Amino acid sequence: MRLRWTSAVLSPLGCAGCVGWQSAMDPQGPQAEHLHRLIWLFTGVAAVIWLLVMLSLALAIWRRRDRSDEPVVPTNAARERRSAVVVFMAVGATVGVIAGLTLASYLATRQVSEASAEPLKIRVQGYQWWWQVSYLDPAAARQITTANEIHIPVGRPVNIELAAADVIHSFWVPNLAGKMDLIPGRDNRLEFTVARPGQYRGQCAEFCGLQHAHMALLVMAESEADFETWQNAQLAPSAAPDSDERRSGRQIVTGKACGACHTVRGTEAAGTIGPDLTHVASRAYIAAGVLPTTRGSLAAWVADPQTIKPGNNMPMVPLTADELRAVSAYLSALK
């Protein structure tokens, strides 16, 4: 299946996204290439088997039609032996095909999970219904936490540690690697390398509740220099407001319930329940792919998150029109 993301906001059954294919048939890294070849192997073998079965069926019908006027002859020992040989050969061929495909699948899986030297280490934690992305580094000051967007350098192995905070989720970026489940209480790992720069759409591939279809993510593959630029920008604290409206917005965010659930580094907001908002405006989308990151989208989300994404854990915070404008102005400046 090939899905096309456009820059427009789609219906409640879809989600917005970047321009690009989401397809396992368009591999963009060595791990995805192994799976791509495996898919074609399975498809080719299945096609050959289907063709042989159809030919055998057609031959049997043709032979039966030619003998329709012949009297029925009781079976004899020679015919039974020939039939038994055919059955045993078919069983042997079936076992051989299954064993061969199983071995091919094992080898492909082993190649996908091969360890590489000095990978970029990232921890992805699935929530209902968004992704927390943490960049692991021995130096605490170099650790980054963001949401729903993974930036990685092209050509460098990426080791992703997968964990679930509530229910079972499944991490799947078809162009880059196979699916891997996130299971509460059990961490899984996935490793891949991206061959070319680009934006690659991913999604949760395990039904995890009402908004499962609205749990998308983006993998942004870029050059090493661009990645370092992004990383350094993310390490910085939140931007200081440069207008009275934005200063008012910061006071509202830190003084009301927002700061109890979200972190904005450089302010008093230090909540850990929701996504880190320190650089929320630098992300392409909010609400795990539901809305493009614009001031209007931020205002709509803060004003009524349950209408946009029913069932999510963000409550409605009562705000006046002036307060909503100030909050949206402040959030849209956090780049």
Describe this structure as you would to a colleague.
This protein is of the alpha+beta class and 335 residues long. It has 3 domains: 30-112, no CATH class; 120-235, Immunoglobulin-like; 244-331, Immunoglobulin-like. The chain has helices spanning 30-66, 77-112, 224-235, 244-255, 258-261, 295-303, 305-308, 321-331; strands at residues 3-5, 20-22, 120-127, 130-135, 144-147, 149-153, 158-164, 169-172, 180-182, 188-192, 198-204, 216-222, 285-286, 291-292. Strands 5-4-3-7-10 form a 5-stranded mixed β-sheet. Strands 6-12-11-8-9 form a 5-stranded mixed β-sheet, covered by helices on one side. Strands 1-2 form a two-stranded antiparallel ribbon. A hairpin with a 7-residue loop joins strand 8 and strand 9. The longest helix has 37 residues, at 30-66. The protein is elongated, with a radius of gyration of 27 Å.
Summary?
It contains 8 helices and 14 strands. The protein is of the alpha+beta class and 335 residues long.
> Beta-sheet strand percentage?
15-25%
From the coordinates shown, what is the CATH architecture of the largest domain?
Sandwich
Structural class: alpha+beta
- Tertiary shape: elongated
- Look at the structure and give the mean pLDDT: 83
Strand and helix layout:
Layout: E1 3-5, E2 20-22, H1 30-66, H2 77-112, E3 120-127, E4 130-135, E5 144-147, E6 149-153, E7 158-164, E8 169-172, E9 180-182, E10 188-192, E11 198-204, E12 216-222, H3 224-235, H4 244-255, H5 258-261, E13 285-286, E14 291-292, H6 295-303, H7 305-308, H8 321-331
